[in-house]
Amino acid sequence: MRLLLIEDEKELAIALSGALGKHGIVTDHTMHLADAVELTRQNVYDAILLDRRLPDGEGLTFIPELRRAGTDTPIIVLTARNEPMERVEGLNVGADDYLGKPFLVEELVARVRAVLRRPSSLAEPGIVAGRMMVDPLNLNVTIDSTPIDLPRRELLVLVALAKRKDKTVLRSTLEAAVYNYEEEIQSNALDAHISRLRKRLLDAGAGVAIHAIRGVGYLLREE
Amino acid sequence: MRLLLIEDEKELAIALSGALGKHGIVTDHTMHLADAVELTRQNVYDAILLDRRLPDGEGLTFIPELRRAGTDTPIIVLTARNEPMERVEGLNVGADDYLGKPFLVEELVARVRAVLRRPSSLAEPGIVAGRMMVDPLNLNVTIDSTPIDLPRRELLVLVALAKRKDKTVLRSTLEAAVYNYEEEIQSNALDAHISRLRKRLLDAGAGVAIHAIRGVGYLLREE
DNA sequence: CCGCGAAGATTGCAGCAGCATTGCGGAGCT
DNA sequence: AGCTCCGCAATGCTGCTGCAATCTTCGCGG
């Protein structure tokens, strides 16, 4: 792990570097914002520790600058001012955390780790079939990444088929996917849905075909 | 944005819910850890506010439990103890932030936003749709970079839609984005919001349309 | 290869569920 | 007090959806 420390008090900086080193963290140190911009351009840091009060200006002004340059490196602001309003100010311009001096090195380490743990991007699953993409969780269907809207029952049928792409889905399974126990079905409503769904998918140019398996069920495949 | 507040002091909890509400944050409240586990299972919260001292135990013990259950929802610990070592302890078991009482609501909001800021989204431009730009964190909406102000509930609906631009958003999801579980809804209030929101967006000349997906939900797209 | 029956496909129709709109009044804020 | 927001409900309307009638396709046996 590698940090950039922007701090003008040389002694503190050295002490901090040493302490962080014991935690297996490599620290680059600069005293000037001007250098910092250049350093972030050339190096990849896991996080930036930023002092507010610096010889060449207010540290906070550095944050928007950095963000504008496209960096998403977490920034932890270090400061003597620890009043609530001050802290709010820091967080609002895009800092990821705010730490008032004096602090324990252990706390700093813990906060760095906490900040680094955040990236929780859950991937959208989505089933691809032909030029169509089905997201069974969110009930979205897109064709060439433009959304298609389908009536509810047809949508449910399609999702059930997509979830088992290239495999036969029993008639009864499809019915269960579309209807609950109360609403029984006494006609070929399912067939009707399939028919209308086919038409809609054809018009929309999804590259898929719904194939009937006689006496068993249906099957979705690319065409 | 929706938070789960785990806090046994009822008055504080109510005050906090109200204050957060003014910032456009919907808050569910529970006093017991046991309930919290169940509530988080549905995974609809953007963040969890956790008191350390709770009737049925130390709040921190909840964190590993939650993480083990696979939740990566950010957790902010609230506590009266604000000593550095205590804070380290909290961060090390997996909390994302730590806030000592008393605190300003503004600071809490700022920290929630900081925690939610995805390192992946660089510089947070917000979501662009048509000539409209939506910042889901700060709840700003601008059209041609002039800010528009919307009633709170309509704003929340719009943000929820914008976050999933071009994708269907379930009715239930929208309701969850606007109401907490106490304030149930028994009419077409959501529809009314949509209708008024449409009108406002039309008047303002946002280049977007809110499309109804019959029986499923709504969808925001550029027009 | 042909014919037949059964399963599937298609489509008009009618009923109605769900959405859109809007006025009203209460509640909350300034 | 004056304002906006917001929930509620009444109204109108769109189009989904179940049904059934009719046509088509499929598979099998002769």
TrEMBL record, chains A, B:
Residues 124-222 form the OmpR/PhoB-type domain. One of its GO terms (cellular component) is protein-DNA complex. PROSITE patterns: OMPR_PHOB, RESPONSE_REGULATORY. Residues 124-222 bind DNA. Keywords: DNA-binding, Phosphoprotein. GO terms for biological process: regulation of DNA-templated transcription. GO terms for molecular function: phosphorelay response regulator activity; transcription cis-regulatory region binding. SMART domains: REC, Trans_reg_C. Residues 2-116 form the Response regulatory domain. The modification 4-aspartylphosphate is found at D51. This is DNA-binding response regulator. It comes from Phyllobacterium salinisoli. The lineage of its organism: Bacteria, Pseudomonadati, Pseudomonadota, Alphaproteobacteria, Hyphomicrobiales.
